[in-house]
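Entry 14. Ran structure prediction on the chain below.
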Amino acid sequence: HGKTIRYGKQVSHSDRKTSRRWEPNTVWAEFYSEILEENIKLRTAPGVMRTIDKYMGFDNYIIMTEPRYLEGLGMQLKHRMLNKMREQPELSAEDCLNVSPECWNYLKRWDLKYAEEAAAKEKAASLAKAEIVEEEELMANYRKELQEAISEGNDLPQRPEPKKKKKISVKKLFIQKRLAKKAAVERRRKNIARVIHGKEADDA
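Output, structure tokens:
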């Protein structure tokens, strides 16, 4: 969950600097996935186990955690769980002991988000293709006018200039990253709150 190897310098009393790295504290742990119906053994950090307790279950943590915190095996488990939920529509939170109904709401938001991203990519690709065709048409007209001007001895036409791409400033990029990070933290808090309130409602 965001734990990585850190690199730096170890400074001695005599101010000698030695390169070294700090590895995260990890332990072997075994978790049971109710959706996949199997035990999963992996190396994890104690902080991750506390986060799993906050989410009230391993499946809740894997499904509702942001993808940037899940790398490698975590994302594989996330895709396996979501695919099984898609393939088995009859599966619900009532069939599981520690899986929140919010996981199915998250699946709907996940599919909607990626459908919108795919549509946006397709639209951007079509716009880029249209711009290329337009530039090629302008160049073809320019070559034709150039040949006519040379043959008739007239003034040469002006070459069409390519469209300039908009550049995003470094300050704007920094602000966007800060806002995205703040939004991710807020989404995580809301996800934990939804899971806790959902469990309280079920117990009631």
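The two ends are 32 Å apart (CA to CA). Will compare against last week's run tomorrow.
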